[in-house]
Structure formats: C-alpha cells, structure tokens
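Late entry, written up from scratch paper. The run itself happened at the end of the previous shift, but nothing got recorded in the book at the time, so transcribing now.
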Amino acid sequence: MIEAVRIQQEDFSQDAEIAALKVGSQRIGGIATFLGCARDFSEGREVLQISFEAYGSMALAEMNKLRSEAMAKFGLLDARIVHRVTTVRAGDNIVFIAAAAEHRAAAFDACRWMIDELKLRVPIWKKELTPEGDSWVTPHP
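Output as recorded:
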C-alpha cells in the first residue's frame, strides 16, 4: 500500500493513486483530481526545466495536516497528495491531488482547496531555468 501523502523524486501513476482511493470505500460517489504538469512557458519566458526543493519533514507534516483538514472540512472519505521534488521538463508530472467523497461537489471543492492551500502553506520551492538564467518563482494560489 502506498502512502496517501508523499514527497518523492520519481514520477507517480494517476491510475494507481485513484485505484488506492477506490479500494478504501464503496461509499465513494465521486473522485476529483488535480494534476500539475511542467510547462515550457511562464511569465512571458521560455522555461527549459524546473527544479523543486523542499524542507522535507516540515513539508510532509504540512501536507498531512492539509489532508486531515480537508477530510474534516469537506467530509471526505479519503484524499491523496503527492508532490515531486526533482528536476522536471515540460510535460512532466509535478503534483497530484485527489479528493474522494460521497458526492461530487465535496470532492471538487476539496480538491481545489487542497492545491490552493498546498501552494500557500507547504515549504516546497520552484526554480525555473530559462535561456536568461535561473529564477526562483513566487507561488500563486
């Protein structure tokens, strides 16, 4: 069984994450997901690659707290948060969020809330490599 909240270098499987949610409960009526991918253009500049760094233990603790808060706030049956900390290129997966609930509205609301809160609260930093050089990116909710 893979952990519901993880920080990892390697890519992840959306199908495996969703399957892990579905195994947990037959009451799930809806699963909303968010997949964050690397893009090749940002803020008017070409992006060659993106590097992610984290304050590991603090980031993981905050991600677990986010999951617990989402479960309570939206009445979720389960949730998953996976974030990569590595260097990626355009098209690569970065972050996966999933919210499982009895009804779709709670799943959609929770999924959006979790990614927005993750960007605001979790100490994971992003540096873009462009033809002009490297630059750290300020998170946008």
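The longest strand covers residues 93-101.
(Scratch paper discarded after transcription.)
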